[in-house]
Structures are given as C-alpha cells and as structure tokens.
Design a protein that fits this description.
Elements (H helix, E strand, L loop, with lengths): L2 H9 L14 H5 L2 H10 L7 H21 L5 E7 L2 E6 L5 H7 L5 H13 L2 H20 L14 H14 L27 H10 L5 H11 L9 H51 L5
Antiparallel strand pairs: 1-2
Helix pairs in contact: 4-7, 10-11
C-alpha cells in the first residue's frame, strides 16, 4: 500500500497490517487488479520526472471512471467441486457501478451521486483520454534520460472515433506495450583465470598461428600445473577463439589502412602525371 492509503488509515484510526490474522492470502486479493488493469494500461516501463507523474494521474483519472462506470466484469456466483472437477457459475457481466446501484446496502445519496457521474461520463471520450495518456507515457519511456522530454498529447475525439471503426479489425499496438530489453549500463568484465597468461599465449599464437587450443592448454599445464588441468579446455578454447578474432580484425584493419594509403599514393601519382602532361601540352602546342 502506498503512503496515501497508510496516512488515511492512520488519520481514521485504522490499523494497517499486511493481512488479517490467519488469513495470509489477503495479499492476493489486494493485488488482484494489478495485472488486469494497472499493467495492461501502463505497461512495464520505468517512468521518471514530474511530467510522467502528471501523465499517470491523467491516465488513472480516466481509467477509474471507464473501469467502474463502463467496463463490465464477471463475478463468481457459485463454485461446486465434484471430485477433481470444479464447476463455476457466474453472474451476468455488468459494470461495478450497476452492482453498486443494485446493492441495498448503499445509501441513496451515494447512488444519486453515482447516477450524476454516469450522466456526464462519455465512454468514447474516456477511452480516447486513456489512449492519449498511454501514447504520452510511451513517448516518455523512449525519451527517458534525455533533456526536454515531450509535450503532452491533446485528445482529438473526432479522429479517435473515426479510428474505432477499424481498430478492432487490425489490432492495435499501443505505445505502452513491452519493448525489447536494452541494457543501458555497460556489462562489467569478469576476471578470468587466463588474465595473467594472456600475453604469453598471444606470443605463442603470433609465433605459431596454427597452434590449437589443446596445445595451448598443454603448454599452460607445463607452466602452471597447480592452476590448469584438462577440465579447463573449454575455457582455453573460448579465450583462443576471441584472441584470434581480435587478431583477424586487426589484420583486416591494418590491411585496409595499407590499401587506402596505396590508393591515395596512386591517385596522387596520377594527378602529378596528368599535371605534367598538361604542362607539356601547354608548352609545346604545335606538336602531337
């Protein structure tokens, strides 16, 4: 529970506990709507800044009315177990507001307030506000850590209503849907048992490029028998493969630099020859 709920309970003399005594499953009832409503609306992105808080408040304000006044839900009526088979029966799907209005335990004054709220709440406008807030949150996730952020999105009700005709047909990829994970922090390099012998192994590979990882391990066992054994063959193979890849890349890079240098020299020589030929033709216009 967040700080607002805890402070409200303290002000009203209510004891805040994680669950009732001998009812440890209460937490599941408290958290039951996190996946069905919160994560489905907000997604799994991490939001930062005051603008993100305002966008979340805008989303929750519209989603609260849409969920409680418009969105129908099932409620369990009976559950019967016959051996290993469980038979469930549900009430007709209606919105929570309809259930509150039908409940005899709610005062008429509260029901009148609820009816007035239903009269002024437009389902299409609420849904458009939810989609606009989701799009804004999606843009803020993409621009997290950048200066300036993004401007709030204004609801265009006519455009949104026109898009509802085909949205159900093709599906809708919302901005708050989960994105592929991209690590922002650099991955720290873990120490290897070959770090102290890397220079020596590289020297062996430079002298004998065709030297196998098995032969490298045999030499390492001779150098440090208390540290290396046959079980370390896979570790040596990985290291040798990486070192050979680095060597190949350096050879390709150096070879490309040599080729570029030769191309520049050839081009410079051709320019010099062309300039000399032009000078000769200018000096002796009557020949050739």
């Amino acid at each position: 529970m967040n700080e607002t709920v805890v402070l409200w309970c303290q002000d009203n003399g209510l004891e805040v506990t994680r669950a009732r005594a001998y009812r440890k499953n209460d937490q599941a009832w408290v958290e039951q709507k996190n996946g069905a409503i919160v994560r489905r609306l907000v997604g799994y992105g991490r939001f930062e800044g005051v603008q993100s808080v305002q966008a979340l408040a805008r989303l929750y304000a519209a989603a609260r009315l849409h969920t409680n006044l418009v969105l129908p839900s099932f409620k369990l009526k009976t559950k019967t177990r016959i051996g290993a088979r469980v038979i469930k029966r549900y009430h007709d799907p209606v919105s929570p507001a309809v259930r509150v209005l039908a409940s005899p335990g709610v005062a008429e004054a509260h029901k009148d307030r609820l009816r007035a709220l239903q009269a002024v709440s437009d389902p299409v406008l609420l849904l458009a506000e939810i989609r606009a807030a989701q799009e804004e949150l999606g843009r803020r996730v993409d621009s997290r850590g950048l200066e300036g952020g993004c401007e709030p999105i204004v609801v265009d009700l006519d455009r949104f209503a026109a898009g509802l005709k085909v949205a159900w047909r093709d599906g809708e990829q919302r901005e708050i849907h989960r994105r592929p994970y991209r690590r922002r922090k650099p991955v720290p390099r873990r120490a290897s048992m070959l770090d102290d012998y890397e220079a020596q192994v590289r020297a062996w590979l430079d002298a004998e490029p065709a030297l196998s990882a098995q032969a490298v391990l045999v030499r390492l066992v001779d150098v440090a028998p208390d540290r290396f054994a046959e079980k370390h063959l896979r570790t040596v193979q990985r290291a040798v493969r990486l070192w050979r890849r680095d060597l190949a890349r350096s050879l390709l890079r150096d070879g490309a630099a040599v080729l570029v240098g030769r191309s520049a020299n050839v081009a410079q020589g051709e320019t010099t020859i062309a300039a000399s030929a032009g000078a000769l033709s200018t000096a002796q216009p009557g020949r050739g």
